[in-house]
Amino acid sequence: MKRSPIHRKTELLSTLLAAIALSACGGGGGGGLTNATSPDGTGVPGSTTTTGSAGSTQAGNGQADGSAGAGTSSNPVPAPVPTGATITTLAISNLSPATDSNVPVTFGQAFAPGALLPTDGLSGTLSNGTTVPVQVETKATHPDGSVRHAILSAVVPSMSAGQSLTLNLVKAASATATGSAPTPAALLNAGFTASASINLGGVQYSASADAALKSGAYTTWLSGPLASEWIVNVPLTTSSGTAHPHLMARFAIRSYAGLNRARVDVTIENNWAYEPNPSNLTYDVQLLVGGTAAYTKTGMTHYHHARWRKELWWGAAPQTHLVHNTAYLKASRAIPNYDPSVVVSGTAISDIKTSWTGAKTEPMGPGLAAPYMPDTGGRPDIGLQPAWTVMYLLSGSKDVKDAAFGTATLAGSWPIHYRDRNTDRPLSILNYPYASLLANAGDMINPATGKSEAFPACTNCATAITPDAAHQPDFSYVPYLLTGDYYHLEELQFWAMYDVFQYTPAYRNFSAGLVKSDQVRGQAWAMRMLAEAAYITPDKDALKSQFTTFLSNNLDWFNASYVGSAASTPNALGVLTNGYALAYNNATGVAPWQDDFFTSAIGRANELGFTKAQSLLAWKGKFPVARMLDAGFCWIYGANYSMNMRDSSASAFYTTMSQVYQSTIPSAQTSLACGGSDMAAALGLSVGEMLGYSSSNTGYPSNMQPALAYSVDGGTANAASAWQKFMQRSVKPDYQNGPQFAIVPR
Q1: Distance (Å, rounded) from C-alpha 327 to C-alpha 164?
Q2: Cβ–Cβ under 8 Å, residues 226 and 41
Q3: pTM score, two decimals?
C-alpha cells in the first residue's frame, strides 16, 4: 500500500482569454427571481423555484437533524447585500469568428449566506453599459432562507467576434426577467426534433424526445421567462414498441424564449440496479437533432451500470466561454480557499490541451482520471478537488475547462451507477438497506422481507476502467455548481450513494450509511462527497435529506467515538484508529497523510456549514498541529510516511507525541538536533526541509497542508503557530502544475 508521489506533469489547458482578469474582480448586477414553478410540481427534484420570506427555513436545506447549516462561529454570516449593490461578476467571451446576436447564457451560481433572498431579484449590467434581465431559478437555500445555489439565465444582445464582457450581477428589489416561460408546444411548432437510435445485434432501437414532449411525458428543471428546460426519459424501443430491458435515453432540452436555439443534452444509460442479466452492450449509435446526425459512433461498448452523455444544439450553438469570479466562490465557502497567489503554469495548460484527445475523451473513457482508480501514488485526481478542477478555478482557461468538465461528463463511464426503477433515482440504502457491492450473499438478505437485495449477477462485464472509493476523484461537484446541469447533479449523487451502498450492510450499520470500515482515505473521500451532496442538492430533492442524514450519522459516530470525555475509543492525539487505519508496521502504525485527507474532508464539511463537524475538526486538528509544534516531536518528520501509535497490536495507544517520535524514528536520528544540519545530512535533505518529498505538489507535506489550513479555520489550539512554522520550511512545492493541495487558512 506504499504511496510514493508520482511526478507527473499535471495536464491542463491553454491561456485564459481576456475574461480571466475579469473573473478576479468584484462587481455587481442585480435582477429578479422569476418565482416560476414547475407546472406539475413533481418529477425532477428541485424543479421548482423556492420562494419564501427572509429568515424562513426551507425543508431539506441541510438541517434535517438540526445539526447542519451555516452561521457557526467558524462560518460567520456576512452582512446583507443592499439593493443596487453588485454581488459578484461573470466573464463572458464570444469565441466565434463572427458577431453573434441574442446570445443565451445559463450557468450555476453560488451565493454567500444572506446575499440574496428568494424574494429578491438580480439585474445584469454588462461592462459595455447594457443592462439585461436575469432569470433566477433557486435550487438550494441556506438555513437563514437566503439563496445558496441558483441557476441563472440571460441573453446578451450582441457580441462581436472574440469579444469579452463582464456581467455584473446586481441585487434588485424584484424580478427583472418577466413574461411567460417558453413551452414545449412553442418549441415543437418551431420544428424541433431530437432522437436517439441504436443498432444492437441487428435490432434497431430508438427514442424520440420530441414525441415525449408532445405527449407531455416530461418534468421541468428550469421554468422562467427567458429559459425553460425539460427532462425527458424515454426507453429505447423497437418499431413494434418492445423496450430494451437495460437501455434508456434521457434528454434535457433547454429552450430560450424567442430564439430558434435549444440545447439538447442526451444521456444513454445502462444503469438499472435490479434488472436481470446486466452486462456490457456493444452497439452502433446515432443521435439526430433537427433531422441531422449530430453524433454517430459504431461499435461502442457501453459498460454495465454506466452512462454516457453528449451536449448538442438545435439551431446555432453559441460559442461562449463563461468564467466565474473565483474570489467570490471562495468567500461564499462553496469552494475551498485555494491560494490566490498560485499562477497556473502555461506549460501545464498547453499540455492538457494537447492531451485532451483520443479514446479517453470518448464515452466509456476515463478522461483525465486514472483508469485503474486503486493505483497508489500521488496523482492529479487525488485531493478535495482534482488538480484539473482547481487549475480551472485559478486560471479560467477554456482549454482546462474543456478537459475538467469533460472528465466530469465521463464520470458516467465508471460502473458504479445503480438506478432504482421504482424511484427513477440513484439507488438509496434507505430503500435497500441490505444492498452491497462487497458483501457475501447471505449478508444481503433483508430479514424484514425475506428477500435478497443483492444485485443480479453480471456477465460479460469486464471494463477497461476500475472504480475505487479510496481513490475516487471529486468529478462533479464544481461542474454542477458552475453549470447547473442536471447531469452533473446526478453524477454527484450517484457517486455519493456508491460511497455508502458499496459496503457490507452490517459494517455501514445498514441504512445508517456509516463509512467507518474503509481505509482512512476512503472514509475521507466519502465524507467529502456526502458533505457536498448534502450542501448542493436542491431543497426539493428527496435525496437532500438522505445525504444530510448519512453525513449526520457519520459525524455522530466519529464524535461519539473520539471527541470529549464520553468518547468510546478516545485517544489524546487526534488520530483515527478505526477501519483500516492501523494497517502499518504490524498493526501499530497509521499513515499520517491518509489521516490528513480525513482532517481536510472534515474541514470541508465544517466550511460548508455542517455544525457537527466543528467539534470533530477541533479534535482532528490536534494531530497535524502537534506534528509541527510538539516539543517531543521533530517537525521535520511531521509528514512521515507512517507513524507508530502503540507498541504492539494489543497495546494501548500512546498519549504523547514523544512516544510516537521515539517509536517511529530510529534512535540515531532522534538523538540529532531537530532541524539542524546533522539531521538534514542524515536524511539527505536541505536544512529546514521536511521529510516526505517536500518539493512535490503531491508529496506528504503537500497532503498535510489542507489539514493544517482547516485546523486554523476550525480554531484548533495553536493551529496558527503550526501553520506559520509549516510555511517557514525551506523547501516547498511549486503548485503551478498541480494546485489541488494549495489550500490556505481563511
Answers
A1: 19
A2: no
A3: 0.91
